[in-house]
Write a structure and sequence with these properties.
This protein has 7 helices and 22 strands. It is an alpha+beta fold and 346 residues long. The protein folds into 2 domains: 131 residues, no CATH class; 166 residues, no CATH class. Strands 1, 2, 3, 4, 5, 6, 7, 8, 9 and 10 form a 10-stranded mixed β-sheet that branches. A 6-stranded mixed β-sheet has the order 14-12-13-20-22-21, with helices on both faces. Strands 11-15-16 form a 3-stranded antiparallel β-sheet, with helices on both faces. Strand 1 and strand 2 form a beta hairpin. Helix 1 crosses helix 2, helix 3 packs across helix 7 and helix 4 packs antiparallel against helix 6. The chain is globular, with a radius of gyration of 21 Å. About 2% of the residues have low confidence.
């Protein structure tokens, strides 16, 4: 991160597998807060193709022309002013998109808001970048284990973060991502280690406070996060092409279990967790340009995602993981199963 003149403020550069973003704000502590979820991807050099300026000040509502709302989402109203897009978060703040999506300004009074909107904007831009460059985002927990990438596909709220926290207590496991690993066009799982999150702060007891922070989110309340560098020496930096998919399903009562399943079952789940991307932030307010009919423009991207998901289901070994309400048992069963696989392969 570097400092500039008073007009530019403090600058940080991100390079997320080729998506290069410059983030600027008026103060170093604000810039640090903004890029904290993406620490792993901070770089010293520029080369950015997208600039984001974050201003901790009221939006310039008096400078906007009288525009009709283009469409609404649960968290904002979107307006179009020629090539400029104005996204109003019901008075909390505004995002201005200009220059064909290469320049953004975020205005807001409150740092939680600014941090969350910047975070969602980066994920939205990453989604577009992945579609354009042959990458597939998967809604899954991703760990490494003895040179293999382990992807556990669970629906939102299915316990991925709790399982990650339990598994990372074991020295054999490395950290790839707790929510959305990226698979490249060659079928390799890429590192995407963002902060591991949870709703219950007590879950993180024993972890030094300097690694933990909280965000009061617009719609979902307070969530607590552990910086990825708490596990810095355990972050998997390699691109792994030996992949095991675990298709998670929950049971109300009973014990966890694992059994082999078919490519078709894996593909069916990937349709939800990668092609449609349920649970992945898609940033629809940033993707649509004219009307809700622009969703049709996503069809080619969906077809490409499907083909990449088809390849992933073919090259990966797939298992159905029946998950109980006992997190410790779930983690133990997974570890024991992976140990047996390793011993068999050896």
């Amino acid at each position: 991160m570097s400092n500039g003149n008073s007009e530019i403020g403090t600058v940080a550069y991100l390079d997320i597998h080729g998506l290069k973003i410059q983030c600027r704000s008026q103060s170093s502590d604000l810039t640090l807060d903004l890029v904290r979820p993406f620490k792993y991807f901070i770089r010293e050099e520029d080369g950015s193709t997208i600039q984001v300026v974050v201003k901790e000040e009221p939006p310039p509502y008096d400078q906007f022309p009288p525009l009709r709302a283009k469409f609404f989402t649960p968290r904002n109203v979107v307006y179009q002013d020629g090539s400029r897009k104005i996204i109003d978060y019901f008075g909390k703040g505004v995002v201005l998109e200009e220059n064909n999506g290469t320049s953004y300004q975020i205005y807001g009074f409150e740092r939680n808001f600014l941090s969350e909107v910047f975070y969602l904007l980066v994920l939205s831009l990453l989604g577009q970048f992945c579609d354009q460059n042959g990458l597939l985002r998967v809604h899954a927990l991703a760990l490494s284990y003895r040179n293999k990438a382990i992807l556990v596909l669970l629906p939102q709220g299915g316990g991925k973060s709790t399982m990650a926290f339990n598994m990372l207590r074991e020295p054999e496991f490395g950290y790839i991502s707790d929510d959305d690993p990226i698979v490249d066009r060659f079928g390799r799982v890429l590192p995407f280690p963002r902060p591991l999150g949870g709703l219950d702060r007590s879950t993180f007891n024993g972890i030094p406070d300097r690694y933990i922070y909280s965000i009061d989110r617009m719609e979902f309340g307070i969530k607590h996060y552990i910086d990825y560098d708490y596990w810095a020496n355990r972050v998997e930096k390699r691109h792994l092409d030996d992949i095991i998919l675990f298709i998670g399903r929950r049971i109300l009562n009973g014990d966890p279990s694992i059994r082999q399943t078919s490519e078709l079952r894996a593909l069916s789940t990937l349709m939800r967790d990668a092609v449609v991307g349920v649970g992945l932030y898609q940033g629809l307010e940033f993707l649509f340009n004219n009307s809700s009919w622009d969703a049709l423009r996503k069809i080619p991207a969906l077809v490409k995602r499907f083909l990449r998901a088809l390849k992933l289901s073919h090259i990966a070994d797939s298992y159905e993981f029946t998950i109980s309400g006992n997190a410790e048992k779930n983690s133990r069963i997974l570890k024991e199963f992976l140990n047996r696989l390793h011993d068999k392969d050896s």
